[in-house]
Amino acid sequence: MLDTNAIIYMLNGRLASPLPDGHYSVSIITEIELLSFPDLSQGEEQQIRVLLREFQTIPLTESVSAKTIQLRRNNKKLKLPDAVIAASAIQQQAVLLTNDQIFSAIDGLSYQTLQLVPKQY
User: Fold this and answer.
1) Which of 20, 26, 15 is nearest to 81 (CA)?
2) What is the CATH number of the domain that holds 98?
3) Does residue 78 fall inside a structural domain?
4) pTM above 0.85, yes or no
């Protein structure tokens, strides 16, 4: 499963190497986060929509909702969107690809950080 920051890194050409072959998914929250950036141009929106079609979108189901509630109760610093993404990955038994360190504190979540190329200024 790809976190929102993983998609942003992909779109900006920041991944040090391509993602390994496999089936990838995203949480519905990732889709919402990506498409709701305030200054998103029509071209950027189209690019995001095309990329998102390559992945399975995990909806907010009853089981994801229940897991989200449990995660938030156990970790008060965990923001709701991150809790939904983590719960989606846990329910799918997926490894979450992310560079957000908040996920390291979540029991039962398998995650992997991404190698990035240095940001060019």
Assistant:
1) 26
2) 3.40.50.1010
3) yes
4) yes
Assess if residue 119 is contained within a domain: no
Query: CA 9, CA 71: separation in Å to the nearest integer?
Result: 26
* pLDDT per residue as tens digits for the range 68-103: 999 999 998 999 999 999 999 999 999 999 999 999
The per-residue b/e assignment along 23-32, b for 16 or more CB within 10 angstroms, e otherwise, is: ebbbbbbbbe
The Cβ of residue 88 has, within 10 Å, a number of other Cβ atoms equal to: 27
**Residue 89 sits in which domain range?**
4-112
d(CA 97, CA 6): 7
120 in any annotated domain:
no
For residues 62 and 68, what is the distance between their CA atoms, to the nearest angstrom? 10
Supply 102's token pair.
């908040």
Centroid of chain to Cα 67: 16
